[in-house]
Every structure is written in C-alpha cells, then in structure tokens.
Amino acid sequence: MTEKHYILAVDDAPDNLFLVQLALEKEGHDVVLVDNGPTALAQIEKDPPDLILLDVMMPEMDGYEVTRRIRTHPQLPYIPILLITAHEHPSLVQGLDVGADEFIRKPVKIEELQARVRSLLRLKQSIEQRESFVHCLTHDLRTPLVAADRMLDLLRNETFGPVTPKMDEAMTTIMSSNQHLLRLLNNLLEAYSYEVGRKIISFIRFNIRELIEEVVRELRPLAEEKVLNLSINWQADREDMIGDRLELKRVFTNLIGNGIKFTDHGGVTVWVHSSSSVPNHVVVEIADTGIGIPPADQQRIFEPFRQGKHKRSGHGLGLYLCRQIVATHNGAIAIQSVIGQGTTFQIELPLRPH
C-alpha cells in the first residue's frame, strides 16, 4: 500500500479540486483543498504539507507567486511543488525557475497525476534521508570527538599520572587528527547549510582592515615556521563595511592559510584596494608565490568536494564555502594562477550589500 501523506491542493476551480481529491484519496493520502493563493500560504505556514499541487492560473495570486513565496520562506522545510497548467513551454520554464519541481498539463489524467505525486514524494523522502545523514555526521560525531579531545588534554596535563615523552607525542598526534576531523565536519555542516539555504547571515558594521589584520596576526606563526613573508598592502579608501564578520573571516583565513600551505619559498601578500570599476566596492587580493594550480583544476576549483591532485590538498569544501559566503554578500571571487609561480585569489565585495 502507498504510504499516507498530507497533500495540499490549490485551485480556484471546484471541479479540478474534486478530481485531485478523488485521485489522491484513492492512493490513501489526506488531501486538503484550498481555492486561492493567500489561503494556501496561510495553511502551509500553519501546517506544512508533504506535497503541494498548485494551479498556475488563479485570481489575486497566481501559482508562480505562491511558489516563489514558499521557496523564499526561511522557516519552511523543503516541500515538493507540482504545478498544474494548461500553458505551453515558456510558462513552464517560468514556474520551474521560481522553484517548482514538476508540472502536469490539463486536462489532468488520474494515473499520470498519481505517478507524478509518487515520484515527488520519493524525492522528498530522499532529501529528508540526506538531511538526517548530514545531521548525524556533523552533530552526533562531533560530540564524542570533543569529549575525546578533553580527555586527551587531561592525560597530557598528567591528571591521571606521569606522561612520558613518547606518550605525549602519541597524544599530540591523536589530538591533531581529531582537530582535522572536527574541521572537516564543521565545513561539511557549513557547506550543507548554504546548499539548502538554511545558513543565517548576520550583517553588521565592522572594520574590514582590522579583520584582515587579525587573520594575518593569527596565521603569522604558520608563515614564520616555513620562513615565509606574510604582509598586508592596504590602499583602500575606506575601512568600514557591512557584512557577516565571522563568515568573511572564514574566507580570508581559508585563502591566506592555503597560500601559506602551498608556498615553500617567498610568501603571501594581501593587497586591499578600492574597486576601479564599481563604486563602493573593496577588492582583496591574496597572492602567494607557491606551486600554482593547473588550468584544468582552476575551472572547477570552487565546486564542492573538488580536491586538487597535490598531496597537501584538502577535502574540497574550503573554496566552495568561500564562494558561497562571498555570493551571499553580493560579491565575486576569481582566481589567477601559473604553475611554479603562484596563485592570486581576488575577492570583490560591496561595502554595503543590498
């Protein structure tokens, strides 16, 4: 038997609603009928359904607008939307562009409707399973890792007895591995939050020069350990901007840290200047004299889980997150690199994103 689901059908024509109700109740689903867009939105916010069937042509608010509002609502979970339309291809494109998942043409055939509903419900189940899996990875695994780190720290401090140099070395290695795994889990959670549109960004006024200087100060010991020069060349007209300071710090830390990681001689320079082409935009260029990135890798370097071929490459989430964070600030990120000469990442950000 088909699993029972709660489905919301929205159409201003009673005959169409009756047909949908008949077809879906035959499949064992609970069907709620609504005859206009505003009432549908109120019902969805009050009690989100498992699936929405939505007529395109309705008075007051059409199906495209209802779809757009559902997809831009920050508190709603993912709900499959099946558009019911009598229009041709251009209108279907419009519906899919605003966030609909599938469409069906009038006059509706019962068997086709039932099949499309089953397909979309399977899609929803797959997405929910993926969310559960990611939650397990990022939350449930993080807790024992943190607990293990605290216990190792107690052992290193000789809380339970003397520690020999070899024991201390072994515990340091274990803690380093734990920290690496924690960073991977945190990056996975952040990447997933951006992917599904659930990342909360806090736009505040802050000093971008102070932020970059803070990141450089924190990473300088890594550069000094490799005998590399790490410097800032500030030429921007302004220092104040509005954005998410914590997320932008993640961007600069990742890019400057990568520059240090992949550079053996020379150094990393952070050059900050005002945009010459767009008013009220600041440009941050992070240039290293490292190994460089092959042209083929440059084309896909910002894709998730796209690892470089070098042995020092990470898990392919850092640069993807950088691109997502910059995009949420209405900015742009680009790369220029020459093998054996170095790499430059260029980030252009509005001082006050809209």
Structural account:
- The chain is of the alpha/beta class.
- The chain folds into three domains: 6-128, Rossmann fold (3-Layer(aba) Sandwich); 141-195, no CATH class; 204-350, Histidine kinase-like ATPase, C-terminal domain (Heat Shock Protein 90), CATH 3.30.565.
- The protein is 47% helix and 20% strand.
- It is built from eleven helices and twelve strands.
- The chain has helices at residues 14-25, 37-46, 63-71, 89-97, 110-140, 142-156, 165-195, 208-225, 245-261, 295-298, 318-328, and strands at 6-10, 30-34, 51-55, 81-85, 102-105, 204-207, 229-234, 240-243, 267-274, 281-288, 332-338, 342-350.
- The longest helix is centred in the middle third of the chain and has 31 residues, at 110-140.
- The protein starts with 5 loop residues before the first strand and ends with a strand.
- Residues 311-315 have low confidence and may be disordered.
Features of the shown structure:
354 residues, alpha/beta, Rossmann fold, Heat Shock Protein 90, 3 domains, 5-stranded parallel β-sheet, 5-stranded mixed β-sheet, 12 strands, 20% strand
Q: What topology, given as strand order, has the largest sheet?
A: 2-1-3-4-5
* Secondary structure category: alpha/beta
| Count of DSSP H/I helices | 11
Biggest sheet character: 5 strands, parallel
The helix/strand series, from N terminus to C terminus, equals EHEHEHEHEHHHEHEEHEEHHEE
Would you tell me the overall average pLDDT?
86
Determine the CATH superfamily of the largest domain.
Histidine kinase-like ATPase, C-terminal domain
Low-confidence parts? 311-315
**What share of residues are in beta strands?**
15-25%
